[in-house]
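Collaborator request, handled under Task 6.
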Amino acid sequence: MSLRLYYHPLSSYSWKVLIPLYDNGTAFEPVIVDGTTHAAFLQAWPMGKFPVLVDDARGETVPESSAIIDYLDRYQPGPVRFTPADPDNAWRTRLWDRFFDLHIHDPTQRIVADRNRPPASKDPFGVEEARRKLANAYQVAESEAAKRTWFSGDDFGLADCAAAPALFYADKVQPFGPGQAAVRAYLDRLKARPSFARVLEEAEPYFKMFPRE
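Structure tokens returned to the collaborator:
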């Protein structure tokens, strides 16, 4: 098997890559990063951030979730193409991919990271700023979700792979309210997709590690 994925079942960016792998039934070797595999993981990608895809057949190591999905589209194509071939649809899909990563995923991770800090190192100002950013992003997402089924155009794609983990975890730290009915319905559609449902099922044993308030 030429593809090897270093990841963790609780990692949101790992989810983003697992979804397209499962959607297209792409064969790969899953390597959960833990105490026994961490050294091999760092050898593959010294920056130490997962997921990382290693393609032994092509001699390529591909970090960063969006880049991995582009790589899969190019070198491991399947029934689902995640970035549209049409140039206009492609840039719009990438725009929403960046929106979910930068404006929902990132502030959510900042809130979660603060929960893991010891009391003396807490950053209430940073958390409040992250919550403000999330509230603003929710308004934008709500407006768009009310007009579409998927954020990647007519079909499920890259932007939706980004949205699934971002919205799932964001709802845990700053729950959607009545003003996010369209976002809630969109997240429900994402959860109903078999590939994402499988990701959530595999993550279930690890959810006890997710930091609560």
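The cover message to the collaborator said: "The beta strands are 3-7, 29-32, 52-55, 60-63. The mean pLDDT is 96. Please let us know whether this matches your experimental observations."
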